[in-house]
Specification:
The structure is a single chain. 38% of the residues lie in helices and 20% in strands. The chain has 10 helices and 12 strands. Strand 8, helix 8 and strand 9 form a beta-alpha-beta unit.
Length: 323
């Protein structure tokens, strides 16, 4: 019959200290205990284990084979316990854990790319998972059902369970075929009015892919008194810009996507418009790592060409486009 013996971490610490110091007095000083107290604890442990752990050698003590085996294993246990405590502290401070971030293409091509680099530097032990999405509704739904911890998107769903922080504002831009008459002129090209959307066919993503952003573009044109002509559709920004370069029409996208520098495409901002990139997370799923992520993202500086005041923005364009 094997007798089970509960060993507290405290007792393992005592065994290691005596084995390393070679005397009870030295171990007691190291542990900030009195010598009689430590001696009593060791005698009690030896009784519980029914074996001698230390043998006298002159004025000192040396571990018996059983004592050496216990001390060796105790060091490993204590190291693992210390690592566990460190893990708990790091997680409580938001320095470890997993964070799944959904984002739109315009976000990663805008301020989000640099911000994620900062997160990677300051939180190297966080398992950062990045998911690109073309659909604003799916991103918000993913936050609601727990698929994503946070979404960086333009058109979050109106839901009381979502926390929404406006993070970045920039103009909307009309991306034109480079040989189009609206793409000609002295650089930098000045903004065009929104009614220009009635003067050039548009390249959009299919409405079923991202209905809210599709409707935003159509609404922008109609508020300006024009009916847009949809000439072609693409399911990603590269495809949309490729169709623009091929001359199918122009695309309305966030200004930050000009960094893609697609050959054959000329960007021109649309006057009196603004698109807002939001940070979106679940109000009831705030964690330490999410709090630290939000703190690191902060509020980036406005772009070089800041958008107009919100009072000048057409109704309904507080956020814009999936990518």
């Amino acid at each position: 019959m094997v007798m089970a013996v509960d060993l507290e971490l405290r007792l393992l610490t005592y065994v290691v200290a005596v084995a390393e110091e070679g005397t009870v007095s030295g171990a007691a000083r190291r542990l900030n205990l009195t010598q009689p107290t430590l001696s009593r604890q060791l005698r009690d442990l030896e009784r519980r284990l029914d074996t001698e752990l230390f043998a006298r050698t002159g004025r000192g003590l040396r571990p018996t084979p059983a004592g050496r085996a216990l001390a060796d294993r105790a060091r490993a246990v204590l190291a693992e316990a210390d690592a566990a405590l460190q893990d708990v502290r790091q997680a409580a401070r938001g320095r470890t854990g997993r964070l799944t971030v959904a984002f739109a293409g315009s976000g990663i091509n805008g301020p989000l790319g640099a911000a994620l680099g900062k997160v990677r530097t300051h939180l190297p032990d966080v398992d950062l998972r990045l998911i690109e999405s073309f659909n604003d509704e799916e991103m918000s739904q993913g936050v609601l059902d727990g698929t994503y911890d946070i979404a960086v998107q333009r058109l979050p769903l109106p839901d009381h369970r979502l926390r929404v922080r406006p993070w970045w504002r920039e103009p909307l831009t009309l991306f034109l075929p480079e040989d189009h008459r609206l793409a000609r002129g002295r650089r930098p090209l000045p903004p065009v009015p929104a009614r220009t959307l009635g003067e050039v066919p548009l390249v959009l993503w299919p409405r079923e892919v991202s209905p809210r952003s599709y409707d935003e573009i159509v609404a922008l044109a109609r508020r300006s008194g024009v009916s847009p002509l949809i000439a072609a559709e693409g399911r990603s920004v590269p495809t949309v810009l490729a169709l623009v370069a091929a001359g199918f029409g122009a695309a309305v996208l966030a200004d930050s996507l000009r960094v893609l520098r697609r050959v054959g495409v000329t960007p021109r901002p649309i006057a009196d418009t603004v698109t807002t990139l939001h940070l979106v997370w679940h109000a009831e799923r705030e964690t330490a790592v999410l709090d630290r992520f939000l703190a690191l993202l902060g509020h980036p500086a406005d772009p070089d060409r800041p958008p107009p005041a919100s009072s000048a923005v057409p109704d309904g364009i507080a956020g814009f486009g999936p990518a």
